[in-house]
Every structure is written in structure tokens, then in C-alpha cells.
Amino acid sequence: MKRLALAALVIPFAALAAGDLSAPLRDGTLFSTPVRSLPAFSGERFAWVVKDRQLRIPRPGFTIGDLKPGETLVALADGRPAGLRISLYNRGDDGELDDSAFLALQEKAAKGISSLAGSDGEPFRRKTDPTKQDADVAGRRWASSGASYTLEWALARKGGSFVPATEYLRLDILPAGRTSQPSAASGQVRKTDPRSHVSREADGTVVLQDVPMVDQGQKGYCAAATVARIMGYYGYDFLDQHQIASWAKSDAERGTNERMLDAIAGVLHDRYKLVYREVPGTSSDLFKVADEYNKAARRAKLPEVSLKPEPGTHIVDGGKVWQSFQFDLLREVRTKNATRNNLFFDHIRRSIDAGVPVIWSVMLGFVPETPALPQASGGHMRLIIGYNPRERTVLYTDSWGAGHERKSMKLEDVIAITTGLRTIAWTVN
Questions:
Q1: How high is the pLDDT of residue 8?
Q2: Are residues 154 and 207 in the same domain?
Q3: Roughly how many angstroms between the first and final C-alpha of the chain, as a whole number?
Q4: Could you tell me if 34 and 24 are in contact, meaning their C-beta atoms sit under 8 angstroms apart?
Q5: Which of 293, 325, 253, 283 is nearest to 5 (CA)?
Q6: Crossing angle for the helix pair 327-334 and 286-300, nearest 10 degrees?
Q7: Are residues 411 and 280 in the same domain?
Q8: Model-level pTM greater than 0.85?
Q9: Which of 52, 186, 195, 312 is most buried, taking the most CB atoms under 10 A from its CB?
Q10: Cis omega before residue 371 (within 30°)?
Q11: Residue 170, CB half-sphere, CA atoms under 13 Å: how many?
């Protein structure tokens, strides 16, 4: 779950000069013009999040008046923009920002959108985290003849008042009269029985449909992106990875401490009636794995792995231990118990049959994967979305956009690299 190199899947628009979006926003033509024909988007490089339905512009060249957008998501309908989600600031991409600079940026954005919309807009506050006594997000909304705008930021309590928190500053732009972003997965909020999304294919594959894609980009936000995808799957499309990252105190370089995911279980339950739990018997105790591995290594006369603390500390570097394993032997050790293998597979089968995606924590760098991953090694979090009982394979997806929606791996390899399985569901399976 470390910070990642920026994904290489980028596609250029026609080479025209980038420009200002203000005019097509004022007259509404932004939403009626094919995206490749918009001069302001010309020359941009983008990555597909969902092919033909949502694209991500990592470093936009266009402007909105005096505002310089950061990472921008563009939802598409028939090749035309159906909604924009623009990051004006987020801690994951842009690093820390002091309070005064963040407040100045927020005020500049509000002033710019007010000028564009022709009104001062309406302030709002709302709760997304029920463990807090007051609102935890705030913002301002504008309605104009050309577009609808929502500027949102996180809140923090300082002293006796709530002030903008330097987590993110997000601008949603939609066609006039619209108030919510279209879902990149299906275009509608899903609050139905999750089992309705279970698809059974002719070769025996069982797979979940409509799992939305989120592209974490270069950030080590795999955990935040994974949770955001699950929330979108259950219909809560308004929660994005930056909000989840603020709950879980994710770090763009080091990722998310998995204990922090346990800490947000109350938020998921109290606000969204979702239960977050660990799948019994699937978490890896590194010391136990290493002990079993070393016993096998001695029998095979292979080098053992060291569990000595780092010099001058009492800390064992788990990542270094994992990278010391010889994979064929590790897989043999972790899959020698057929009963345990069957139980592991059965946990996955029962969750998928119930329409519940499985959060899969892994160590990368052992199993070759197609397409190649932006992260070569280390801890990572992804989603299991299906299985094939005949082939004993597991279907999974990564939060890196188009090309990573549906992949497959043999059960033995899955077990070998697993550090834990978890689920988020309306009911406990």
C-alpha cells in the first residue's frame, strides 16, 4: 500500500491548445459537445477509469477562470461530458498545506465560481461521519443556467469552532438542474439486494456485476479506493477516496494502516448500516508463516528468513521478511493443508454468492500479473469479485482504472500472497 508510480495508460486528445472552461460552462455547451471536440480539453492526457464512461485527467492543462484544477474525473454519456469532479486540492496528490493557504484557496475558489455562476451560492453542512457530534463536511452550492456547482471541503474542530480541514477541496460540476454525479458503473444508485448483481457464466464462473472503478492514481490510497468502490457498489456514490482517506488517516506515501480500517467500522455501521468484518482464519500471522517456512527451508536445505528486528529498534520489517521468501516454497507451505484451502475458497464462494465483494490484502511481487501493475511489490489492497469452481480460480480487480476491472489468479497463488480477507456488507454472512 505504498505510494505508486503514475500509471502509464494515458491517451492524448487531438493536439490543439488547451484553454479555459468558463465560456462552455456559462452557456452550457460543455455538456452538449463531444469531449474530444472541446478546445479546453485538447492536448490533455488521460487514463480511462471506465472505458467510454469515465476518464481521469491526472494533470489538467485547462483552467476555470483563475482556478487551476488538479486531478479531474469526467463522466461521459454518448461521448459528451455528463459531470466533472475536480480536485482543487487533496492531501494525497498535493501534500500538506497549511491552514492559511488552504483557506485562501477555498475563498479564491468560492469567489471564482460565484463570478461564473452569477450568484453567491448557498452554504451547506452535512454529516458523513456519525461518530462526530456535528457536520464533518461543508461547502457551497450554485445553480446557473449553464451548470450546477458544488464546492466541498472537510471540517475540523479547532478551539470552539469548526474550520475547513486541509484534507481536500473538491468541485463538482453538473448540467444545470442536476445535483448528483452520474455513477460510472451504471448511472443509478443501487440499494437493491446485492445478490441481484451475481452473474453466472457458461463456464461456471460466478462474478459480481456493477462494481464501480476508482483509479487511485499515483497515491498509496489502495485501501481508501477499495472502500470507496464498495460504497459505490452499495449505492453511496457520493463518497470518494479522499473522504475515506480522511476517515482512515491514509498517507499518500505509506498508505493506510489496516488498523485504521477497523477504526472506521463504527462510521460504516452507524451511518450506512454496513458491517465491516474480518473473514475468520484468513489473516496472516507473519511470525507463524515465517516459522513454518523456515522449517520447510531447513528440510529443503534452503536459506531461512530472518525475523531479527532492524538495527537499533525492536521492529521487524515485515515487508523485508516477505521479500525474503522463496515463492515456490512459500506457496507449498501455505497450501499444504487441503482442508484449509477448501475453507478459504468456500469463504470467497459464500461471499460472492451473497453479492458481497471481498477485500483482499496481499503482498505483491511474487505472482506475474497481466496487465503489469503500477506497484511492483509490497503491501496492497484489492477486491475479489468472483470465482470459478471448476478451474479453482479467483477473479479480482485493482483500483487502477481500465484494464484492471477483471483479472484471474489460481487459488494456490491467491492463498500464498494473502495477508487477510475482509468484507463490508449490510448483513453478516
A1: 34
A2: no
A3: 27
A4: no
A5: 253
A6: 110
A7: yes
A8: no
A9: 186
A10: yes
A11: 24
What CA dihedral angle connects 399, 400, 401 and 402, to 10 degrees? -120
Q: Could you tell me the three cell numbers for 243?
A: 473522504
For residues 335 and 415, give the distance between their C-alpha atoms in angstroms, rounded to a whole number: 7
User: Nearest-CA neighbor of 79 among 43, 42, 45, 33?
Assistant: 33
C-beta of residue 197 within 8 angstroms of C-beta of residue 191:
no
What is the per-residue pLDDT across 142-172, written as a single tens digit (0 to 9) for each?
999 999 999 999 887 776 677 888 888 999 9
Residues in the chain, pLDDT under 70: 1-18, 40, 42-44, 129-133, 159-160, 179-191, 237-238, 248-261, 263, 427-429
* 227 sits in which H/E element: helix 222-233
Domain co-membership, 313 together with 203: yes
* Same domain (yes/no): 286, 234: yes
Is the same domain home to 223 and 169? no
Residue 240 and residue 116 share a domain:
no
Q: Residue ranges of the alpha helices (H) in 95-167?
A: 99-117
Tell me the pLDDT tens digit for each residue of 74-106. 989 998 999 999 999 988 778 888 989 999 999
Facing residues of 421 across strands?
Answer: 360
- Taking CA 419 as the corner, what is the angle to CA 413 and CA 422, rounded to the nearest 5 degrees? 105
Residues ≥6 apart with Cβ < 8 Å to 238: 180, 181
Provide φ and ψ at 237, rounded to 5°.
-70, -15
The predicted pLDDT at position 254 comes to 56
The answer on 310 and 240 residing in a single domain is: yes
Q: Is 95 exposed, middle or buried (0-12, 13-18, 19+ CB in 10 A)?
A: exposed
Closest CA to 328 of 412, 408, 407, 396: 412
> Please, are residues 53 and 76 in contact by the beta-carbon 8 Å criterion?
yes
Distance CA 209, CA 268 (A): 22
Q: What is the DSSP letter of 251?
A: B
Return the residue matching grid coordinates 471541503: 153
Backbone angles phi, psi at 140, to 5 degrees: -145, 140
Total count of domains within the chain: 2
Instruction: Count CB neighbours of 139 within 10 A.
Output: 24
- Does 263 share its domain with 283? yes
- Cα–Cα distances in Å, from 341 out to 287, 338, 345? 20, 5, 6
Identify the domain containing residue 156 by its residue range.
11-175
Tell me the backbone φ, ψ of residue 112, rounded to 5 degrees: -65, -45
Q: Which residue has the cell 468484518?
A: 277
